[in-house]
Write a structure and sequence with these properties.
By secondary structure, the protein is of the alpha+beta class. It has a single domain, classed as 2-Layer Sandwich (60s Ribosomal Protein L30, Chain: A). It is built from 6 helices and 5 strands; from the N terminus they run H-H-H-E-E-H-E-H-E-H-E. The chain has a 5-stranded mixed sheet with strand order 1-2-5-3-4, with helices on both faces. Helix 4 crosses helix 5. The longest helix is centred in the middle third of the chain and has 27 residues.
Length: 240
Amino acid sequence: MARRRRAPSGGAASWLTTYGDMVTLLLTFFVFLFSFSTIDVKEFKKMLFSFKGAIGALPGGRTFQVDRLVGAGARGKDAGESIRQTRELQEVISRLTGILKEAQAEKQVFLRVDERGVTVSFTGDLLFDPGSVEIRPEGRRLLYKVGETIRVLRNPVAVEGHTDDVPISTPRFPSNWELSAGRAAAVVRYLVDEVGFDPLRLHAVGYGQHRPVVPNDGPENRALNRRVDLVILTSERIFP
């Protein structure tokens, strides 16, 4: 009478676990290779700008520096344009830093870099008296120097007006929407009429109190939120 063979007691062979782990790692490796091979150069540059701004590369007169590999993987024309634009922005930021230092306006005008481009932020009451859209004489002088410096760039510039959260209600400005839009329009008009900007490169918009940079919890913070931003866009589009 033939003996019966005993059924294996350990389930699946142990080598299958190791084999499965190896296949998973190989799959992950090739997915990473594919993602690296299709990197978007423009998006990479925006990420780099955002990172440099987040770690404070601009305040205090420092500027960002982009490696030679920023254009890697792009067509020659696109990569060359990216490098040219980066160098021009770097030169302009260096000049702006010197202008603000000479005018002792580092606490009233700030430079920052994000995914949209380079922002020159005129804060507080440097440009306008409370409830007014008439640019003050001292504000005109500094705005002229800043505008003259960025006018040499080909980039479009978005001029964005902001207010604090203190409500306004006058026949001319029923709310902060109208006040912020009026201030942005006044700056655009000055840049075109006095500085010589191409009107097609400029765009004016008012955001009221709805995009504060700090909480509106005190006079100093409210002064920072009352601002006009000149955004030198790295993209050809005005809107983000």
